[in-house]
What we know:
Blueprint: E1 2-6, E2 15-19, E3 29-38, H1 41-47, E4 64-72, E5 84-88, E6 97-101, E7 105-107, H2 114-118, H3 121-134, E8 142-145, H4 151-162, E9 166-171, H5 174-182, E10 187-190, H6 196-203, E11 211-214, H7 221-226, E12 233-236, H8 250-255, E13 258-261, H9 264-270, H10 272-287, E14 295-300, H11 304-312, E15 319-323
Helix pairs in contact: 3-4, 3-10, 9-10
Amino acid sequence: MNAWLCENPVGVEALVWKELPTPEPAAGQVRVAIKAASLNFPDLLIIQNKYQMKPPLPFVPGTEFAGVVEAVGEGVKGLKAGDAVAAFAGTGGFGSHACIPAALAMPLPPGFAFEDAAAFICTYATSHHALLDRAALQPGETVLILGAAGGVGTAAIQIAKAAGAKVIAAASSDEKCARCREIGADATINYASGNLREELKTLTEGKGPDVIYDPVGGDLAEPAFRSIAWRGRYLVVGFAQGEIPALPLNLALLKGASLVGVFWGEFARREPRRNAEMLGQLAQWYGQGKIKPVLDQVLPLAQLPQAFARMASRQVVGKVVLTNP
């Protein structure tokens, strides 16, 4: 097999394309011939040694991928060679093969494209868990999505619309805002050039958004939280801007609002049955055409450094996907 190997986690420049022995699945594992893998923000943090999970060296990065089961280890039930699967495994995706616990493999229904499947689990599971489980989003409510043109943002737009909500998408350029409208946003705010609070006041007739979905953090958090509606729910999804904001907690008191943490990975670990049910519903929605990953670019796996450069440019709309021949 071939893979991008991280032997020294100092950044993209230290990754090396190498030929490695093809692994054999241990008990409870399956070996997947990887057809496509997607780029997630944690992939960059892991190879910079900045993520909470620090794999033993050396390791093959790549948290999320899709492919075909090639071999199954002892004790594996429900999967066999030839099955199409997707996985969010933490590492291993930026190569031609990976051995993963069978429990992490999501069987793909017929017609689920590998490029879409590779960009599916993390963003859609995070957004579904956030909006429908943690925020209990109701039809007719208004959702503000920060960083709306990114992977989780574009998934959140689609899921909120499927739930019957009004969506205000906030992004950093007019081009990104236009793309958000194309995939279903009812209104958009360019927070790089406009005043977030004033535009929210206008778009919600002074009421404010019922739910705020925030994967960005940084200096957007406080003005967004100050705009929240009575009994609003502020979803803390991530900190893509890099800075963890310190919010004045009196705002929660004054608005009767809730600060709600969203950690899909821990939810999946602690509540595997509910997670499996959620993924099943998402796969059904994909089949019905209600949701579909927004792919910014599809590149050969050999162009992983270029894919990271594209991510660093902050021009990505949706997700970058890498494919094996």
